[in-house]
Amino acid sequence: MAESAKPSLPLFPIQLRKVDIGQVAYTCQRFSDPAVVPATKFELNVAVSPFSDSDRSFQVSLTFQCSNEKSESPYYPYSLALTIHGEFGADLERLKHDGDWIKKWGEKNGVLLLLPFLREAVYSFTQKTGFKPLLIPLVETSAFGVAAPPPPAGTEIVRLPAAPPTAEAQR
């Protein structure tokens, strides 16, 4: 019987368990135009649920809302709201942090982990409704603002040497 393979790097004590689309709300007053980006303004909001001791999890919700108005756009009154929910599990024995730390982690790292799912859903939805695909812009958030817990005792940390500069970089 083969021995199970261990990951080459230790797993982080918080892992994404599942991703779901929680809400899609769409309004368009006229026929679509594949040459038009339908929205002129957008908003991105994040919410983090309290940590659940019973199943050792918490949820991060990321909501994208966009719209335009007749006064802002010569095209169409348009609105779209789409929410992505991510459920994260946490290994509290390794994490050794409280609920406030987990909330901060969710507000920063949870956003970074869920944003690609949200970007794809919005892009796909706007394209499938007949408009030019809407690509959510990148947002400023720092995942490094929340320090990760130290690796488990006995974990070997390997530092890779810096690559020498290329000839193009030296010009």
Description:
This protein is an alpha+beta fold. It has helices at residues 92-95, 99-128, 167-170; strands spanning 14-28, 41-48, 57-68, 78-90. A four-stranded antiparallel sheet has the order 1-4-3-2. The longest helix has 30 residues, at 99-128. It is elongated and about 60 Å long. The model is unreliable at 144-148 and 157-163 (pLDDT under 50).
Secondary-structure topology with pairs:
Blueprint: E1 14-28, E2 41-48, E3 57-68, E4 78-90, H1 92-95, H2 99-128, H3 167-170
Antiparallel strand pairs: 1-4, 2-3, 3-4
Arithmetic mean pLDDT: 79
Q: How would you spell out the order of helices and strands?
A: EEEEHHH
Q: Estimate what percentage of residues fall within beta strands.
A: 25-35%
Sheet of most strands: 4 strands, antiparallel
Q: Trace the largest sheet across and list its strands.
A: 1-4-3-2
Shape: elongated
Uncertain residue ranges: 144-148, 157-163
**DSSP strand count:** 4
Total number of helical segments? 3
Rg to the nearest angstrom?
A: 21 Å
* Oligomerization status of the protein chains: single chain
